[in-house]
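User: I'm writing a tutorial on reading structure tokens. Could you give me a worked example: one chain, its sequence, then its tokens, then a sentence or two explaining what the tokens reveal?
Assistant: Sure. Here is the example chain.
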Amino acid sequence: VKRIATKVIYSKRANPMLILDNLHGFVIVEIKIVEVPKMLDNKTLLQSRISKDYGIRVLNVKRDDLSIGDISKDEVILKNDRVMAYGPLVNLIEVFEQKPSIYSRIS
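And here are its predicted structure tokens:
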């Protein structure tokens, strides 16, 4: 099965985002945390309110060699984490402080 993804290219300081699937504006993305966004910095997922206010669900966090699949509301996103999340694309871009410059299709 051939999979198509959309890669969004950013500046070196941005958190690169790979859009794995697009479901009518709701997307599944993988985000490499190069710089922890202000909204998430030193906050648990519950404290950040990204689920309640933005409709974003963190599905998985890969930290070093550890994969955290059972995400707790007390989880904190750290620099160098790889985050898989689901939610409205516009909200993911806002929360993770994205300013895309180039969109490209990968097949």
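What the tokens reveal: The first strand starts at residue 5 and ends at 9. Confidence is low (pLDDT under 50) at residues 101-107.
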